[in-house]
Amino acid sequence: MSPALAGVLQLTALAAALVLAYRPLGDYMAAVYGAPRHLRVEKVLYRCIGANPDAEMRWPAYLRGVLAFSAAGVLLLYLLQRVQGGLPLSLGFASISPDQAFNTAASFVTNTNWQSYSGEQAMGHVVQTAGLAVQNFVSAATGMAVAVALVRGFARSRTGELGNFWADLVRGTVRVLVPIAVLGALVLVACGAVQNFSGIHEVGQFMGGVQQTNGGAVASQEAIKELGTNGGGYFNANSAHPFENPNAFSNLFEIFLILVIPFALTRTFGKMVGNVKQGYAILATMAAVWLGFTALMMWSEFAHGGPALQAAGAAMEGKETRFGVGSSAIFSVATTLTSTGAVDAFHSSFTAFGGGLQLLGMMLGEIAPGGVGSGLYGMLVMAVIAVFLAGLMVGRTPEYLGKKIGTREIKLAACYLLITPTLVLGFTAASMVLPDALGSMLNTKALGAGPHGFSEVLYAFTSGANNNGSAFAGLNANTPWYNTTIGLAMLLGRFLPMVFVLALAGSLAEQQPVPETAGTLRTEKPLFAGLLVGTILIVTGLTYFPALALGPLAEGLS
Amino acid sequence: MTVPVKPEEPGTMASRSTLTPARAPHQDAPGGQQPGDGRVGGGLFDPGQLIRSLPDALRKLDPRVMVKSPVMFVVEVGSVLTTVFACTTPTDWFGWTIAAWLWLTVLFANLAEAVAEGRGKAQADTLRKAKTDTVARRLTDGAAERIPGTELRIGDLVVCEAGDIIPGDGDVVDGVASVDESAITGESAPVIRESGGDRCAVTGGTKVLSDRIVIKITTRPGETFIDRMINLVEGAARQKTPNEIALNILLASLTIIFLLAVVTLQPFAIYAGAEQPMIVLLALLVCLIPTTIGALLSAIGIAGMDRLVQRNVLAMSGRAVEAAGDVSTLLLDKTGTITLGNRQAAEFVPVRGTTEAEVADAAQLSSLADETPEGRSIVVLAKEKYGLRERHQGELTGAEWIPFTAQTRMSGVDIDGRKVRKGASGSVIAWVQERGGPVAEDARTLTDAISEAGGTPLLVALEDESGPRVLGVIHLKDVVKEGMRERFVELRRMGIKTVMITGDNPLTAKAIAEEAGVDDFLAEATPEDKMALIKREQAGGKLVAMTGDGTNDAPALAQADVGVAMNTGTSAAKEAGNMVDLDSNPTKLIEIVEIGKQLLITRGALTTFSIANDVAKYFAIIPAMFAVAYPGLDTLNIMRLSSPDSAILSAIIFNALVIVALVPLALKGVRYRPVSADRMLRRNLAVYGLGGLIAPFLGIKLIDLLLSLIPGIG
Predict the structure, then answer these.
(1) B261 min Cα distance to partner chain A (Å)
(2) Who is most buried in A33, B100, B356, B511, counting CB within 10 A?
(3) pLDDT digits over A96-141, tens only?
(4) Domain containing residue A516
(5) A366 in a domain, yes or no?
(6) For testing the chain A interface, which of B630, B637, B675 should be mutated: the one with the most A CBs within 10 Å?
(7) Which chain A residues are closer than 8 Å to B689 by Cβ?
(8) Which residue ranges traverse the bilayer (chain B) (predicted)?
(9) Per residue in B318-350, pLDDT tens?
(10) Cβ separation of B632 and A429 shorter than 8 Å?
(11) Residue A350: inside a domain, yes or no?
């Protein structure tokens, strides 16, 4: 079997598995977020945090919940790292420096999981399991809660109420993420991923020298790392490490975990707004972009342009022989089109166009299918923009799902749209003129790799501001400048959009729906899905074209 | 039309028919159906207007004016900066050329707006002529004193006689007069204005042609209808509409994104070892920001209002025009809108024992003395269908004519010992029974059947040697205007529900509703019913449009999202509505909706076009900027433009020229056809989306080819 055929077959199997899971999981999540009753364990949790899960919240209250909870998360995680040296089970690792601790705390609370440290050389069991893994669950649940609040904004009318943040947070964790993560961890353990609290082993190497390696609750963290589109690896090599991702099947299974919730949420959306076809249209948009990117990535990697790659006969540099080119291509698209950022191959070593696709995938705003929750709300904001343009062309004041897209709505959607480009382009531009920042590049102009070095920095900020967390590598990001700026990019790139999404939800929920007529733009039709794909590509393309031209395009076309 | 509370009997129609306005709507054929596309197309665009509007366009360069359009303000700032940079290197022809084209871009945008406004100005000038200073004769304690029209106050009584110009808006409180309203409506046929009822409103600036009326002034000087009209057509009262504001926000945020992309490009370029001249960056910025739509946005809005004015409709706000596009329920009065004003005889039905010809003959005879339109239609039907020549009253000697009156509700003739009568069934039955004649059993079944079918039955009776008896029934029908059914189908396709409002009983209303093809009807409608219907539709989130003219329509007109008052109507109605139709043609409501939709479509289409244009501009400018530093990027120069300078210039020139090229479209509006949203979207996306993607590739290449002919560039 040729590697290309193997890749296509793996993609087919993956798509089939996603299709099978789509309806049951989507319907289940709709039921979870609409359920009137609380589980016993949830009641205990509500009592612990002192929240009334039945109190309806307007958008400012909901937002306060999100921000307060996340701020507490950042603080806790920061402190945990700062005192690591004194904690038990720390494997003898020292406390983390302030700028890196801030960066890591911001990274995990924002669902980014950008890591400027090497897991096995810096983080002990307590920080990994009680700090990082916990945030893997709750940061994902926060994203889902915000998405659900926006969907309620569309579904409800003449009320400003968006549900209860604490209930959404707890339910998302207890009823959705934990059960699936447990199953996922079991599958990964069965595949051979490790799950223990063992200390550091020293292993003699064949070529001489000693390699240190440690165990840990790896399989469980791996499961939620993918399921919650987090991406922060237990080890520095992330999902390329055999303890995290032992074989080709576990690799495919991890891709499945990455994609399953973001795709299924479109079903949840359709269910909650009372028209599953609307969910299918969003699904179709996401799937079209995902499949298109995957096809392009496979083409780019299998064609392996460039003299060195041609000579080697495959673009295998930086890829695991366990997975091969096809599976690595699928993984890298899945991880950059969602906010995961886990990697099973070295992104910097992908072909220039492949690297460009990874960058572009994140620049789209990670909406195809995007992070858990954040993908759905990002896509819905793009739909609002598309509806505004297209809606005018059918001769009506634009409306989406019966809600008018007026001045207030477009203002909020436009603000949402402005945030990540500002962060990405602004910080990258600053890094291009600051000597300190330039010094971090492994591939500098002096070494004859100008565009690639630029791509590294652009990638770092794109990854941070979009809460992806994957790295192009080749850039030493553990400097005060990058730790601080990427940390800021992550925080602002996560929470500012949430402010506008929740305000939008509140504004929509207050509206009285407009009944659908033959003159209404049909947003459940393929034409609209196509229009949405076009809007996303053009808006992103126009924003980032100059930057992409000076990075991956300049490199790939030379 | 006012809303009759009771089913209309022929008699009441007769007394009403003398009151119908003396003039017909002057442009539309009944039903207003005109063939094919471009039904709501605007006036023609005259290129000479561009030159005439130049001074206005230059005046608009004032930054305080420009700042209202964020996109064009950025271009103006860019032009100033480019000019400054060009001054620093005065020998560089490239900088000067870019500066010149950037200024032209701003100027073209202002020109578009000035041309749109210019059309209104011409109209305003005509109106101003009507607003000559008048002398009013104010009545105080019965005596008339002459004061200047500007000193009139609300509540003053003024008297006007033949030849007088009416000094201000008001209601006739005494007398009746024919008035020439051509100053406002452009229609030369005089109209009747009289005290009481729904035709009492007079407008300042119009001229009394005959008789004497006393007018109670209802508006202050300077706030009269004609003043408001002048403000409206001049655009002085123009405010940005909600959708326009929303679109402006989107355009502003796109401008910020592009500003960001261009500002951050310089550090990237420095890193790449290809620092860019400021002029090139400014050129790139202007190319990217949505200048096409930014330049034309206000022209589109003004032209939309103007299209209404050309149809003799005055919208009191742009908001109302926009709302018209969103309307999903149309309330249409039956009489005058859906049906022709009057019922017409459709057939003669004999009772058992008589023939159709006998009925026709008797019906014709008895209707000769009936001057109502219904009576006329009976004579016409007898002539057309039964070949009965119309006999004139004079040629029948010894005949005693009984004319139609509202009291007897019968007409007829006594001739040669025969008495023939025709009229409302109750009256005729009473007449026959008075004379001891039998009423045929099937006469009742026939009248009932006609009533059920929505018609109005009239009975024909005869008294001769065989005694008095009922001969048969005349079936009077409402005649639906030609082309209405097709229009309602179109409206349904556009997603608009039509509701017919009528004072008829539900049976009659249902039959007419079915015949006309409206979606719903409101029978025996009172003003309260109408109001309740509007509120019910609005509670469901629908926008409602209606027309009205009577004072009792005023609350409903105010409640409706689009309320079109007829100019013939009362001032209360005109005050309550947000549009006034100077032609008083209720069918025009449909056109108003179409103009509203066209306005929104034009905005959307040009926005899409503008954004799609950017793709080609990137492919022209990015290789031009960076092909030196990274030769590989020359691959992106897919248009194979001749040189970097020429590429940037071509993009800028295209960007400026496309504004001028699209001015006619902005003024005329995008072609609109009533089809479903899906088809409309598909078409507009293909034309303006795909077209917007491809057109600049061709345009820029063409300009580049021309430029490369100039020595020193290519």
Answers:
(1) 6
(2) A33
(3) 899 899 999 999 999 999 888 887 788 888 888 888 889 999 999 9
(4) 381-557
(5) no
(6) B630
(7) 534
(8) 93-112, 245-272, 278-302, 615-633, 648-667, 687-710
(9) 788 888 888 889 898 887 678 776 778 888 988
(10) no
(11) no
